[in-house]
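Hello forum,

I keep getting stuck at the same step: I have a sequence, I want structure tokens, and every attempt I make locally crashes halfway through. Rather than fight my setup again tonight, could one of you with a working pipeline run this one for me? It's a single chain of 176 residues.
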Amino acid sequence: MNNHWAREFAEYLASAGITIGVTPTEYGPDLLMKRGDYILMLYRAAGEPEVSEIVSFNDVPEDMYYAEAIAWAKEVGIAGGLEDSNFEPQSPLSRQQAFTFTYRALSILGKQFTSGTAEDLEAFPDADQVGDYAVVPIATLIRLGIVEGSNGMLIPNNTMTRAQMAKVITMVLQMA
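Reply #2:
Ran it on my machine without issues. Output:
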């Protein structure tokens, strides 16, 4: 993480007990996030609240390290299933999926906000690539200054990296 743009964000999350490195000495900022791992970070950010039952989606075994986090996310409305009541926790997490999960977590994390609109996306040439389900979530995070884009683009279908995750979750936690 020396000289990496996300160093401060990763250090903040590590000091808060939200994330750990991929090894005792490496964070892995450019590694890609998986859906289950991102939900785990949001769950830790929420203080690891108790869940009524660990069972959540057909493809989330109860003994997986992220099972309780995904059950919580389903219970509070952050995570919905994909096809066939599956969550696909090991699948790569797109940026728009991450932003949608984050948006849904804002109130749960005690954050006050006004939702954005499609107009908030107009400055980005690739706004037409944003899925309908993600327009308001991404617009809201842009309005809040959490999402700024990458080189003037939203790149909503790209996979989120650990560095990007660290920035987004840190920015949410540091909101007034």
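The chain has six helices and no strands. If your local run keeps crashing, start a new thread with the error log.
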